[in-house]
Amino acid sequence: MNAAGSNTDRFDVVVVGFGGAGAAATIEAADNGARVLVLDRAYGGGASALSGGVVYAGGGTAQQREAGYDDDPENLYAYLRQEARDAVDESTLRRFCEQSPGMITWLEKQGASFAGSVPSYKTSYPTDRHYLYYSGNEKAYPYNESARPAPRGHRTVAKGLASGKVLWTKLAESAVRKGVTFIPLAQVTDLIIEDGAVVGLKYRVLDESHPNAAEHRKLTRRSGKIGNFAPDLVKKTVTKIERLWDGGAEAREVRAPAVILAAGGFIYNKEWVAKYAPQFTKISPLGTPADDGAGITLGVTAGGDVARMGNVTAWRFLSPPSAFIEGITVGLDGQRIQNEDLYGATHGDVMMRNFGGKGWAVYDAVSWDKARRQFWSQTQIFQKLQVIYLFALGHKTARTVSALAAKIGVDPDGLQKSVDVYNAGIASGQGDPAHKAPELCQPILKPPFRAFNISDDSSPFLPIPGLTLGGLIVDGASGLVKREDGTPIHGLYAAGRNAVGVCSNSYISGLSLADCFFSGRRAGAHAALQATKPGASAA
After folding, report:
1. Could you please report the per-residue DSSP string of 73-103?
2. How far is CA 268 from CA 150, 290, 349, 421, in A?
3. Helix/strand/coil (H, E, C) string of 40-79?
4. CB-based burial of residue 7 (10 Å sphere; 0-12 exposed, 13-18 middle, 19+ buried)?
5. What span, in angstroms and rounded, lies between the C-alpha atoms of 464 and 348?
6. How many angstroms separate the most distant Cα atoms in the chain?
Protein backbone atom coordinates (compact mmCIF):
# COMPACT_ATOMS: atom_id res chain seq x y z
CA MET A 1 0.00 0.00 0.00
CA ASN A 2 3.05 2.25 0.23
CA ALA A 3 5.22 3.86 -2.42
CA ALA A 4 8.22 6.06 -1.82
CA GLY A 5 8.49 9.12 -4.02
CA SER A 6 11.49 10.95 -5.43
CA ASN A 7 12.42 14.38 -4.08
CA THR A 8 10.14 16.04 -6.67
CA ASP A 9 7.15 14.16 -8.11
CA ARG A 10 4.26 15.09 -10.39
CA PHE A 11 0.67 13.92 -10.08
CA ASP A 12 -2.74 15.16 -11.25
CA VAL A 13 -4.24 15.25 -7.75
CA VAL A 14 -2.59 15.20 -4.33
CA VAL A 15 -4.74 14.42 -1.28
CA VAL A 16 -3.55 15.46 2.18
CA GLY A 17 -4.90 13.00 4.73
CA PHE A 18 -5.95 9.38 4.18
CA GLY A 19 -8.97 9.05 6.47
CA GLY A 20 -12.57 8.73 5.32
CA ALA A 21 -12.70 11.96 3.31
CA GLY A 22 -9.23 11.43 1.85
CA ALA A 23 -9.98 7.85 0.82
CA ALA A 24 -13.22 8.90 -0.86
CA ALA A 25 -11.42 11.72 -2.68
CA THR A 26 -8.66 9.43 -3.96
CA ILE A 27 -11.12 6.83 -5.24
CA GLU A 28 -13.29 9.37 -7.02
CA ALA A 29 -10.31 11.16 -8.56
CA ALA A 30 -8.82 7.86 -9.76
CA ASP A 31 -12.18 6.77 -11.20
CA ASN A 32 -12.20 10.02 -13.17
CA GLY A 33 -8.84 9.33 -14.77
CA ALA A 34 -6.44 11.19 -12.48
CA ARG A 35 -3.01 10.07 -11.27
CA VAL A 36 -3.42 10.41 -7.51
CA LEU A 37 -0.99 10.69 -4.60
CA VAL A 38 -2.24 10.62 -1.01
CA LEU A 39 -0.09 11.65 1.97
CA ASP A 40 -0.85 10.87 5.60
CA ARG A 41 0.92 11.91 8.80
CA ALA A 42 0.47 8.42 10.20
CA TYR A 43 -0.45 5.17 8.44
CA GLY A 44 -3.88 6.18 7.18
CA GLY A 45 -7.30 5.84 8.74
CA GLY A 46 -7.35 8.89 10.98
CA ALA A 47 -10.42 9.41 13.13
CA SER A 48 -12.54 7.52 10.59
CA ALA A 49 -10.77 4.23 11.29
CA LEU A 50 -11.17 4.77 15.04
CA SER A 51 -14.85 5.60 14.70
CA GLY A 52 -17.85 3.32 15.11
CA GLY A 53 -18.08 2.92 11.34
CA VAL A 54 -21.59 4.38 11.23
CA VAL A 55 -22.69 6.11 8.02
CA TYR A 56 -25.78 8.33 8.18
CA ALA A 57 -27.83 7.55 5.08
CA GLY A 58 -31.48 7.52 4.14
CA GLY A 59 -33.89 8.37 1.39
CA GLY A 60 -34.68 4.70 0.79
CA THR A 61 -31.52 2.61 1.15
CA ALA A 62 -31.69 -1.13 0.53
CA GLN A 63 -31.16 -1.71 4.25
CA GLN A 64 -34.07 0.55 5.18
CA ARG A 65 -36.33 -1.27 2.73
CA GLU A 66 -35.15 -4.64 4.04
CA ALA A 67 -36.12 -3.59 7.56
CA GLY A 68 -39.52 -2.39 6.37
CA TYR A 69 -39.03 1.36 6.76
CA ASP A 70 -40.36 3.95 4.33
CA ASP A 71 -38.00 6.84 3.63
CA ASP A 72 -37.33 9.09 0.67
CA PRO A 73 -34.93 11.96 -0.15
CA GLU A 74 -37.54 14.63 0.59
CA ASN A 75 -38.24 13.18 4.03
CA LEU A 76 -34.50 12.93 4.70
CA TYR A 77 -34.14 16.56 3.65
CA ALA A 78 -36.98 17.62 5.96
CA TYR A 79 -35.12 16.06 8.87
CA LEU A 80 -31.58 17.15 8.00
CA ARG A 81 -32.66 20.74 7.36
CA GLN A 82 -33.32 20.91 11.11
CA GLU A 83 -29.86 19.56 11.93
CA ALA A 84 -27.78 21.31 9.27
CA ARG A 85 -29.71 24.59 9.29
CA ASP A 86 -27.53 27.06 7.35
CA ALA A 87 -24.24 25.16 7.47
CA VAL A 88 -24.59 24.42 3.75
CA ASP A 89 -26.84 25.94 1.11
CA GLU A 90 -30.13 24.33 0.12
CA SER A 91 -28.88 22.89 -3.18
CA THR A 92 -25.93 21.20 -1.45
CA LEU A 93 -28.12 19.64 1.22
CA ARG A 94 -30.66 18.47 -1.35
CA ARG A 95 -27.87 16.92 -3.41
CA PHE A 96 -26.57 15.18 -0.27
CA CYS A 97 -30.05 13.74 0.39
CA GLU A 98 -30.66 12.70 -3.22
CA GLN A 99 -27.31 10.93 -3.37
CA SER A 100 -27.69 9.33 0.06
CA PRO A 101 -29.10 5.91 -0.99
CA GLY A 102 -26.40 5.67 -3.65
CA MET A 103 -23.69 6.45 -1.09
CA ILE A 104 -24.28 3.11 0.64
CA THR A 105 -24.24 1.36 -2.74
CA TRP A 106 -20.95 3.11 -3.58
CA LEU A 107 -19.41 2.02 -0.27
CA GLU A 108 -20.53 -1.54 -0.92
CA LYS A 109 -18.81 -1.43 -4.31
CA GLN A 110 -15.60 -0.59 -2.47
CA GLY A 111 -16.05 -3.71 -0.34
CA ALA A 112 -17.96 -2.53 2.75
CA SER A 113 -20.99 -4.44 4.06
CA PHE A 114 -24.18 -3.19 5.71
CA ALA A 115 -27.33 -4.89 7.04
CA GLY A 116 -30.94 -4.04 7.86
CA SER A 117 -31.40 -5.42 11.40
CA VAL A 118 -32.84 -2.75 13.75
CA PRO A 119 -32.87 -2.91 17.60
CA SER A 120 -36.22 -2.49 19.34
CA TYR A 121 -34.72 -0.17 21.97
CA LYS A 122 -32.99 3.22 21.87
CA THR A 123 -29.22 3.03 21.92
CA SER A 124 -26.20 5.20 21.17
CA TYR A 125 -24.45 2.28 19.43
CA PRO A 126 -25.96 -1.13 18.71
CA THR A 127 -24.68 -4.57 19.63
CA ASP A 128 -23.45 -7.01 16.98
CA ARG A 129 -27.01 -8.26 16.46
CA HIS A 130 -28.00 -4.97 14.82
CA TYR A 131 -26.48 -2.78 12.10
CA LEU A 132 -29.21 -0.23 11.34
CA TYR A 133 -30.58 2.07 14.04
CA TYR A 134 -31.98 5.49 14.91
CA SER A 135 -28.65 7.26 15.27
CA GLY A 136 -29.90 10.82 15.64
CA ASN A 137 -32.94 12.80 16.77
CA GLU A 138 -35.36 11.21 14.31
CA LYS A 139 -37.89 10.09 16.95
CA ALA A 140 -37.35 12.96 19.40
CA TYR A 141 -39.22 16.24 19.80
CA PRO A 142 -39.20 18.64 17.98
CA TYR A 143 -37.53 16.86 15.05
CA ASN A 144 -40.28 14.26 14.72
CA GLU A 145 -42.84 16.99 14.03
CA SER A 146 -41.28 17.89 10.66
CA ALA A 147 -40.21 14.52 9.25
CA ARG A 148 -41.23 10.87 9.49
CA PRO A 149 -38.81 9.04 11.76
CA ALA A 150 -36.67 6.43 10.04
CA PRO A 151 -33.51 4.57 11.11
CA ARG A 152 -30.55 5.94 9.17
CA GLY A 153 -27.47 4.91 11.12
CA HIS A 154 -25.86 2.29 8.84
CA ARG A 155 -23.17 0.56 10.89
CA THR A 156 -20.52 -1.28 8.88
CA VAL A 157 -20.81 -5.00 9.50
CA ALA A 158 -17.96 -6.01 11.81
CA LYS A 159 -17.46 -7.26 15.34
CA GLY A 160 -17.38 -4.93 18.33
CA LEU A 161 -15.43 -1.73 17.78
CA ALA A 162 -13.90 -2.87 14.47
CA SER A 163 -16.55 -1.33 12.20
CA GLY A 164 -14.63 1.91 11.58
CA LYS A 165 -11.36 0.13 10.88
CA VAL A 166 -13.03 -2.35 8.55
CA LEU A 167 -14.81 0.40 6.63
CA TRP A 168 -11.66 2.48 6.14
CA THR A 169 -9.58 -0.57 5.21
CA LYS A 170 -12.02 -1.48 2.44
CA LEU A 171 -11.80 2.07 1.07
CA ALA A 172 -8.01 2.14 1.30
CA GLU A 173 -7.68 -1.21 -0.45
CA SER A 174 -10.02 -0.01 -3.19
CA ALA A 175 -7.94 3.13 -3.68
CA VAL A 176 -4.73 1.16 -4.07
CA ARG A 177 -6.37 -1.25 -6.52
CA LYS A 178 -7.24 1.79 -8.62
CA GLY A 179 -3.59 2.83 -8.77
CA VAL A 180 -3.51 5.47 -6.03
CA THR A 181 -0.01 6.04 -4.58
CA PHE A 182 0.06 6.22 -0.78
CA ILE A 183 2.95 7.67 1.23
CA PRO A 184 2.57 7.37 5.03
CA LEU A 185 4.40 9.35 7.73
CA ALA A 186 4.32 12.42 5.50
CA GLN A 187 3.58 15.86 6.94
CA VAL A 188 2.87 18.78 4.63
CA THR A 189 4.80 21.95 5.49
CA ASP A 190 3.80 24.34 2.71
CA LEU A 191 1.54 24.72 -0.27
CA ILE A 192 3.17 25.86 -3.52
CA ILE A 193 1.24 28.83 -4.89
CA GLU A 194 1.85 30.45 -8.28
CA ASP A 195 -0.26 33.29 -9.72
CA GLY A 196 -2.83 32.78 -6.95
CA ALA A 197 -3.35 29.08 -7.69
CA VAL A 198 -2.14 26.07 -5.72
CA VAL A 199 0.16 23.96 -7.90
CA GLY A 200 1.70 21.55 -5.42
CA LEU A 201 3.10 21.21 -1.93
CA LYS A 202 6.19 20.56 0.15
CA TYR A 203 6.33 17.88 2.81
CA ARG A 204 8.62 15.93 5.13
CA VAL A 205 8.46 12.15 5.30
CA LEU A 206 9.95 9.38 7.44
CA ASP A 207 10.74 6.75 4.83
CA GLU A 208 9.88 3.22 5.94
CA SER A 209 13.45 2.15 5.21
CA HIS A 210 14.75 4.52 7.93
CA PRO A 211 15.90 2.87 11.22
CA ASN A 212 13.29 4.89 13.19
CA ALA A 213 10.38 3.59 11.12
CA ALA A 214 9.90 0.18 12.77
CA GLU A 215 9.65 1.53 16.31
CA HIS A 216 7.43 4.37 15.10
CA ARG A 217 4.95 1.86 13.68
CA LYS A 218 5.03 -0.34 16.79
CA LEU A 219 4.33 2.55 19.18
CA THR A 220 1.60 3.96 16.93
CA ARG A 221 -0.22 0.63 16.86
CA ARG A 222 -0.04 0.30 20.64
CA SER A 223 -1.35 3.77 21.41
CA GLY A 224 -3.93 4.44 18.69
CA LYS A 225 -7.19 3.06 20.11
CA ILE A 226 -6.28 3.84 23.73
CA GLY A 227 -5.53 7.44 22.78
CA ASN A 228 -8.95 7.77 21.22
CA PHE A 229 -10.68 7.15 24.58
CA ALA A 230 -8.00 8.19 27.08
CA PRO A 231 -5.47 10.51 25.40
CA ASP A 232 -3.76 11.43 28.67
CA LEU A 233 -2.64 7.82 29.08
CA VAL A 234 -0.51 7.93 25.92
CA LYS A 235 0.97 11.44 26.09
CA LYS A 236 4.54 10.21 26.61
CA THR A 237 4.18 7.66 23.84
CA VAL A 238 2.89 10.29 21.42
CA THR A 239 5.84 12.53 22.27
CA LYS A 240 8.26 9.69 21.56
CA ILE A 241 6.52 8.94 18.26
CA GLU A 242 6.91 12.58 17.24
CA ARG A 243 10.62 12.54 18.12
CA LEU A 244 11.20 9.41 16.07
CA TRP A 245 9.54 11.00 13.07
CA ASP A 246 11.34 14.33 13.38
CA GLY A 247 14.69 12.61 13.76
CA GLY A 248 14.41 10.76 10.46
CA ALA A 249 12.13 12.80 8.20
CA GLU A 250 13.45 14.16 4.90
CA ALA A 251 12.10 16.99 2.71
CA ARG A 252 10.27 16.35 -0.55
CA GLU A 253 8.13 18.25 -3.02
CA VAL A 254 5.27 17.27 -5.31
CA ARG A 255 3.66 19.21 -8.15
CA ALA A 256 0.00 18.87 -9.04
CA PRO A 257 -2.70 21.17 -10.43
CA ALA A 258 -5.08 20.07 -7.67
CA VAL A 259 -4.57 19.60 -3.91
CA ILE A 260 -7.33 18.30 -1.63
CA LEU A 261 -7.05 19.00 2.10
CA ALA A 262 -8.64 16.15 4.08
CA ALA A 263 -6.52 16.17 7.23
CA GLY A 264 -9.19 16.18 9.96
CA GLY A 265 -10.39 18.70 12.54
CA PHE A 266 -8.58 20.43 15.39
CA ILE A 267 -9.82 18.81 18.59
CA TYR A 268 -6.22 18.02 19.63
CA ASN A 269 -5.22 21.68 19.30
CA LYS A 270 -5.90 22.89 22.85
CA GLU A 271 -5.11 26.50 22.00
CA TRP A 272 -7.62 26.59 19.16
CA VAL A 273 -10.33 24.87 21.21
CA ALA A 274 -9.80 27.40 24.01
CA LYS A 275 -9.92 30.25 21.49
CA TYR A 276 -12.92 29.18 19.43
CA ALA A 277 -14.93 26.98 21.83
CA PRO A 278 -13.98 27.77 25.44
CA GLN A 279 -17.04 25.95 26.82
CA PHE A 280 -15.63 22.68 25.49
CA THR A 281 -12.09 22.64 26.89
CA LYS A 282 -12.84 19.83 29.36
CA ILE A 283 -14.19 17.30 26.87
CA SER A 284 -12.11 14.30 25.82
CA PRO A 285 -10.68 14.73 22.30
CA LEU A 286 -11.97 12.13 19.86
CA GLY A 287 -9.62 11.40 16.99
CA THR A 288 -5.85 11.26 16.62
CA PRO A 289 -3.04 13.69 17.52
CA ALA A 290 -3.01 14.67 13.84
CA ASP A 291 -6.40 16.34 14.39
CA ASP A 292 -4.60 19.56 15.29
CA GLY A 293 -5.87 21.89 12.57
CA ALA A 294 -2.81 21.52 10.33
CA GLY A 295 -4.92 21.08 7.21
CA ILE A 296 -7.08 24.07 8.07
CA THR A 297 -3.92 26.13 8.66
CA LEU A 298 -2.63 25.23 5.19
CA GLY A 299 -5.88 26.46 3.67
CA VAL A 300 -5.80 29.71 5.65
CA THR A 301 -2.19 30.43 4.62
CA ALA A 302 -3.33 30.11 1.01
CA GLY A 303 -6.02 32.73 1.60
CA GLY A 304 -8.92 30.51 2.62
CA ASP A 305 -11.65 31.62 5.03
CA VAL A 306 -13.07 29.62 7.94
CA ALA A 307 -16.44 29.35 9.68
CA ARG A 308 -18.29 27.39 12.42
CA MET A 309 -15.04 27.09 14.37
CA GLY A 310 -16.89 27.31 17.69
CA ASN A 311 -19.04 24.27 16.91
CA VAL A 312 -17.81 21.25 18.84
CA THR A 313 -19.66 18.05 19.69
CA ALA A 314 -20.07 16.89 23.29
CA TRP A 315 -21.26 13.29 23.42
CA ARG A 316 -23.12 12.84 26.68
CA PHE A 317 -24.95 9.61 25.93
CA LEU A 318 -27.36 8.28 28.54
CA SER A 319 -28.06 4.95 26.87
CA PRO A 320 -27.58 2.05 26.77
CA PRO A 321 -29.21 0.71 28.84
CA SER A 322 -32.30 2.38 27.38
CA ALA A 323 -33.90 2.69 30.85
CA PHE A 324 -31.33 5.40 31.60
CA ILE A 325 -33.38 7.65 29.32
CA GLU A 326 -36.45 7.22 31.54
CA GLY A 327 -35.23 9.53 34.31
CA ILE A 328 -34.60 13.26 34.05
CA THR A 329 -31.43 15.30 33.64
CA VAL A 330 -30.96 18.54 35.57
CA GLY A 331 -28.40 21.29 36.01
CA LEU A 332 -26.96 22.36 39.33
CA ASP A 333 -29.97 24.65 39.80
CA GLY A 334 -32.26 21.62 39.55
CA GLN A 335 -33.82 22.77 36.29
CA ARG A 336 -34.46 20.22 33.55
CA ILE A 337 -31.80 20.28 30.86
CA GLN A 338 -33.82 18.98 27.89
CA ASN A 339 -35.87 15.97 26.83
CA GLU A 340 -33.59 13.02 27.51
CA ASP A 341 -34.44 11.10 24.33
CA LEU A 342 -32.52 13.65 22.26
CA TYR A 343 -29.34 12.40 20.63
CA GLY A 344 -26.43 12.49 23.08
CA ALA A 345 -24.53 15.30 21.35
CA THR A 346 -27.70 17.40 21.02
CA HIS A 347 -28.49 17.00 24.70
CA GLY A 348 -24.82 17.50 25.54
CA ASP A 349 -24.62 20.72 23.56
CA VAL A 350 -27.47 22.20 25.62
CA MET A 351 -25.76 21.14 28.84
CA MET A 352 -22.39 22.56 27.77
CA ARG A 353 -23.71 25.89 26.52
CA ASN A 354 -26.65 26.57 28.85
CA PHE A 355 -25.69 24.77 32.07
CA GLY A 356 -21.95 25.35 32.18
CA GLY A 357 -21.23 21.73 31.34
CA LYS A 358 -22.66 20.52 34.65
CA GLY A 359 -25.55 18.16 35.21
CA TRP A 360 -26.94 15.03 36.86
CA ALA A 361 -29.21 12.22 35.67
CA VAL A 362 -31.87 11.26 38.25
CA TYR A 363 -33.84 7.99 38.58
CA ASP A 364 -36.15 6.12 40.86
CA ALA A 365 -35.84 2.45 41.78
CA VAL A 366 -38.05 1.25 38.92
CA SER A 367 -35.89 2.69 36.13
CA TRP A 368 -32.65 1.79 37.90
CA ASP A 369 -33.65 -1.85 38.32
CA LYS A 370 -34.85 -1.98 34.72
CA ALA A 371 -31.48 -0.67 33.53
CA ARG A 372 -29.76 -3.47 35.45
CA ARG A 373 -31.89 -6.07 33.68
CA GLN A 374 -31.03 -4.56 30.28
CA PHE A 375 -27.30 -4.49 30.93
CA TRP A 376 -26.20 -7.70 29.23
CA SER A 377 -28.47 -7.57 26.19
CA GLN A 378 -28.03 -3.91 25.16
CA THR A 379 -24.34 -3.10 25.64
CA GLN A 380 -21.05 -3.45 23.77
CA ILE A 381 -17.90 -4.13 25.80
CA PHE A 382 -16.86 -0.47 26.03
CA GLN A 383 -20.37 0.44 27.17
CA LYS A 384 -20.36 -2.38 29.72
CA LEU A 385 -17.26 -0.93 31.39
CA GLN A 386 -18.92 2.47 31.80
CA VAL A 387 -22.22 1.06 33.04
CA ILE A 388 -20.48 -1.24 35.54
CA TYR A 389 -18.80 1.87 36.95
CA LEU A 390 -22.16 3.65 37.24
CA PHE A 391 -23.82 0.70 38.97
CA ALA A 392 -20.90 0.09 41.34
CA LEU A 393 -19.28 3.39 42.29
CA GLY A 394 -20.48 6.15 40.01
CA HIS A 395 -23.83 7.05 41.56
CA LYS A 396 -25.38 8.57 44.70
CA THR A 397 -28.37 7.12 46.55
CA ALA A 398 -30.96 8.60 48.93
CA ARG A 399 -34.43 7.78 50.26
CA THR A 400 -35.90 11.18 49.30
CA VAL A 401 -35.44 13.59 46.42
CA SER A 402 -34.37 16.39 48.74
CA ALA A 403 -31.75 14.17 50.40
CA LEU A 404 -30.48 13.16 46.98
CA ALA A 405 -30.20 16.82 45.99
CA ALA A 406 -28.05 17.49 49.06
CA LYS A 407 -25.73 14.60 48.21
CA ILE A 408 -25.16 15.69 44.62
CA GLY A 409 -24.94 19.43 45.22
CA VAL A 410 -28.09 20.35 43.28
CA ASP A 411 -30.59 22.97 44.44
CA PRO A 412 -33.22 20.92 46.37
CA ASP A 413 -36.18 23.15 45.53
CA GLY A 414 -35.26 23.20 41.85
CA LEU A 415 -34.84 19.42 41.67
CA GLN A 416 -38.08 18.74 43.56
CA LYS A 417 -39.97 21.06 41.22
CA SER A 418 -38.52 19.36 38.12
CA VAL A 419 -39.47 15.94 39.48
CA ASP A 420 -42.97 17.08 40.45
CA VAL A 421 -43.66 18.69 37.06
CA TYR A 422 -42.40 15.59 35.26
CA ASN A 423 -44.50 13.24 37.40
CA ALA A 424 -47.59 15.42 37.10
CA GLY A 425 -47.40 15.48 33.31
CA ILE A 426 -47.21 11.70 33.15
CA ALA A 427 -49.99 11.22 35.70
CA SER A 428 -52.33 13.65 33.94
CA GLY A 429 -52.05 11.80 30.66
CA GLN A 430 -50.79 14.92 28.92
CA GLY A 431 -47.26 13.55 28.90
CA ASP A 432 -43.85 14.95 29.73
CA PRO A 433 -43.84 18.76 29.52
CA ALA A 434 -40.43 18.46 27.83
CA HIS A 435 -42.03 16.18 25.21
CA LYS A 436 -39.98 13.05 25.81
CA ALA A 437 -41.53 10.06 24.03
CA PRO A 438 -44.27 8.48 26.23
CA GLU A 439 -42.71 5.00 26.07
CA LEU A 440 -39.55 6.45 27.66
CA CYS A 441 -41.31 8.26 30.51
CA GLN A 442 -41.17 6.63 33.95
CA PRO A 443 -42.42 8.68 36.89
CA ILE A 444 -39.84 9.26 39.60
CA LEU A 445 -41.77 7.91 42.57
CA LYS A 446 -40.27 4.81 44.11
CA PRO A 447 -37.28 5.09 46.50
CA PRO A 448 -34.41 4.72 46.71
CA PHE A 449 -33.62 7.53 44.29
CA ARG A 450 -30.31 7.54 42.45
CA ALA A 451 -28.29 9.99 40.38
CA PHE A 452 -25.04 9.95 38.44
CA ASN A 453 -22.90 12.85 37.35
CA ILE A 454 -23.05 13.70 33.63
CA SER A 455 -20.85 16.81 33.86
CA ASP A 456 -17.86 17.51 31.64
CA ASP A 457 -15.55 16.74 34.58
CA SER A 458 -17.56 13.95 36.21
CA SER A 459 -15.07 11.07 36.04
CA PRO A 460 -12.32 9.64 33.83
CA PHE A 461 -14.54 6.54 33.65
CA LEU A 462 -17.36 8.60 32.10
CA PRO A 463 -15.74 11.12 29.75
CA ILE A 464 -17.54 13.37 27.29
CA PRO A 465 -15.79 12.76 23.97
CA GLY A 466 -16.08 15.19 21.10
CA LEU A 467 -14.68 16.56 17.88
CA THR A 468 -14.64 19.89 16.03
CA LEU A 469 -17.09 20.66 13.25
CA GLY A 470 -15.85 23.94 11.74
CA GLY A 471 -13.27 24.49 9.05
CA LEU A 472 -12.56 26.01 5.68
CA ILE A 473 -15.44 27.48 3.71
CA VAL A 474 -15.85 25.64 0.42
CA ASP A 475 -17.93 25.97 -2.72
CA GLY A 476 -20.95 23.70 -2.42
CA ALA A 477 -20.76 22.41 -5.97
CA SER A 478 -17.02 21.75 -6.27
CA GLY A 479 -15.38 21.72 -2.83
CA LEU A 480 -12.96 24.48 -3.83
CA VAL A 481 -11.75 26.52 -0.85
CA LYS A 482 -13.14 30.05 -0.75
CA ARG A 483 -11.49 33.31 0.19
CA GLU A 484 -13.17 35.83 2.49
CA ASP A 485 -14.57 37.65 -0.56
CA GLY A 486 -16.21 34.42 -1.75
CA THR A 487 -13.89 33.75 -4.70
CA PRO A 488 -12.42 30.25 -5.06
CA ILE A 489 -8.75 29.42 -4.72
CA HIS A 490 -7.94 27.54 -7.90
CA GLY A 491 -6.31 24.18 -7.33
CA LEU A 492 -7.22 23.96 -3.61
CA TYR A 493 -10.05 21.83 -2.22
CA ALA A 494 -11.10 20.80 1.29
CA ALA A 495 -13.21 17.90 2.53
CA GLY A 496 -14.28 16.17 5.72
CA ARG A 497 -13.51 18.03 8.93
CA ASN A 498 -11.08 20.31 7.14
CA ALA A 499 -14.18 21.94 5.65
CA VAL A 500 -17.55 23.33 6.66
CA GLY A 501 -20.04 20.64 5.72
CA VAL A 502 -23.44 19.10 6.31
CA CYS A 503 -22.64 18.23 9.95
CA SER A 504 -20.99 21.56 10.87
CA ASN A 505 -23.96 22.89 12.85
CA SER A 506 -25.20 19.75 14.54
CA TYR A 507 -23.62 16.33 14.89
CA ILE A 508 -25.47 13.01 14.96
CA SER A 509 -23.90 9.56 14.70
CA GLY A 510 -22.79 8.79 11.18
CA LEU A 511 -23.31 12.26 9.75
CA SER A 512 -19.63 13.23 9.90
CA LEU A 513 -18.57 10.07 8.05
CA ALA A 514 -21.37 10.55 5.53
CA ASP A 515 -20.23 14.13 4.97
CA CYS A 516 -16.63 12.92 4.63
CA PHE A 517 -17.63 10.60 1.82
CA PHE A 518 -19.92 13.14 0.18
CA SER A 519 -17.44 16.02 0.31
CA GLY A 520 -14.45 13.80 -0.50
CA ARG A 521 -16.09 12.41 -3.62
CA ARG A 522 -17.21 15.89 -4.65
CA ALA A 523 -13.70 17.29 -4.36
CA GLY A 524 -12.08 14.26 -5.98
CA ALA A 525 -14.36 14.33 -9.02
CA HIS A 526 -14.02 18.06 -9.61
CA ALA A 527 -10.27 18.06 -9.01
CA ALA A 528 -9.74 15.21 -11.47
CA LEU A 529 -11.84 16.95 -14.09
CA GLN A 530 -9.85 20.18 -13.77
CA ALA A 531 -6.46 18.51 -13.43
CA THR A 532 -6.80 16.27 -16.48
CA LYS A 533 -7.84 19.06 -18.84
CA PRO A 534 -5.30 19.76 -21.59
CA GLY A 535 -2.64 22.13 -20.29
CA ALA A 536 -3.62 21.69 -16.64
CA SER A 537 -0.42 19.96 -15.48
CA ALA A 538 1.51 21.76 -12.74
CA ALA A 539 4.76 23.35 -13.79
Report:
1. HHHHHHHHHHHHTTSS-HHHHHHHHHHHHHH
2. 34, 7, 19, 41
3. CCCCCCHHHHHCCCEEECCCCCHHHHHCCCCCCHHHHHHH
4. exposed
5. 9
6. 79
What is the C-alpha separation between 167 and 152, in angstroms, rounded? 17
Q: What residues have CB less than 8 Å from 341, skipping those under 6 apart?
A: 122, 139, 140, 141, 325, 436, 437, 440
Tell me how far apart the alpha carbons of residues 30 and 272 are, in angstroms, rounded to a whole number.
34
CA dihedral 4, 10, 16, 22 (to 10 degrees): -90
Question: Does position 229 have pLDDT exceeding 80, yes or no?
Answer: no
pLDDT at 534: 79
SS3 315: coil
Alpha-carbon distance of 99 to 349, in angstroms, equals 29
Does residue 232 have a pLDDT over 70? no
Q: Tell whether omega for the bond before 448 is within 30 degrees of 0, i.e. cis.
A: yes
Q: Tell me how crowded residue 266 is: count the other CB atoms within 10 A of its CB.
A: 29
Q: Rounding to the nearest 10 degrees, give the CA dihedral for residues 526, 531, 532, 535.
A: 140
Q: How many helices (H) and strands (E) does the chain have?
A: 16, 21
Question: What are φ and ψ of residue 499, in 5° steps?
Answer: -125, 155
- 233 has pLDDT over 80: no
What pLDDT is stored for residue 537 in this prediction?
63
Q: What is the DSSP letter of 327?
A: S
Residue 18, phi then psi, degrees to nearest 5: -120, 50
163-177 vs 90-109: helix axis angle to the nearest 10?
A: 80
C-alpha closest to that of 327 among 160, 482, 441, 220: 441
Please write the tens of the pLDDT for every residue from 482-538.
Answer: 999 999 999 999 999 999 999 999 999 999 999 999 999 999 999 999 988 876 665
Q: What pLDDT does residue 224 have?
A: 62
Q: How far is CA 537 from the centre of its chain?
A: 35
SS3 call for 23: helix
Contact predicate 243/477, CB 8 Å: no
122: DSSP letter: -
For residues 116, 120, 126, 129, the Cα torsion angle rounded to the nearest 10 degrees is -60
